[in-house]
Amino acid sequence: MAGAGSMSIWRLCFLLVTALALSGCDQFGNGTYRFRMTVVVETPDGVKSGSSVYQIDVAQRLQVTPESQVRKVALTGESVAVEIAPGRTLFTLLKTVSNNDSFFLMSLRSLQPNCRQTYGSAEECTIDAMVSRLSKAGPGKPFIVKPENYPMLVTFGDLDDPTSVARVDPDDLAATFGEGVSLRRITVEVTDEPVTTGIEKRLGWWSRIIESGGNLIPMERTMINGRSRYKVAPGYDETLADIGLSQFSTEAYK
């Protein structure tokens, strides 16, 4: 009887997976979505802006219970670059301040703000429900990204020197770029345009960093509890220890 029970469970899973494949899996949010992120900056010389199209592929492997569903999310794209002044460029990284993987959630939350107030129930604001609505939406108006969902912002003191990378405070661009420079807004919108490429053309040291391992900030080898470890070299920002080319482009090593 145990064998028959196992057979029934596997048959049920097979039928469910087959049904999902035939239906396109829309009710579970599978699909490919493209978004345009635009960064607008106020400067003494007028408004400067830059944008980049990125793609998110969403897939789920169905398990027996909803609690055990596994979602696979893949990001393809590159940084937004805004030239503030000759030799001074603001870059968004492919990570938010809070989480490496939250570009997906940032996109959903930005395109469906105030979800509970709009739809009236927690069930309508689950990730699956939000993605399902997104799958039915075409290109539309841009939505403001809230500060808590901002991508990390960086710049280079010298564009020719990757080790000069430095974080930029979104609330105080003037501290980095000078008086009169401020972040006006960051927006996200659904688009059907091609994914943006070419960020490496702005950074002449790109191929050299690929050959050296990908990290921008110098690292020192040290021993901790008898094990070899690496730490940020003195004089550099430890919060940028994991910043490499993959935070500027998902295609850096392809």
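[next item in queue]
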Amino acid sequence: MELKGQAGASVLHPMSNFAMGARFSEQLLTLLSQVRTVVTSTESLMKSGVSPPVNLP
């Protein structure tokens, strides 16, 4: 009985971890696409001869 409960918990636990991981990677992808948008707009500004408003290190 006790073993069955442990097995059920171990099956349930990775699923919640997976859900959290999926949500995290989704946010990460959104952040990456936003960064890429900023980078491309900055590059196009530099190509047109205008200095970017952000001071890059």
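[queue empty]
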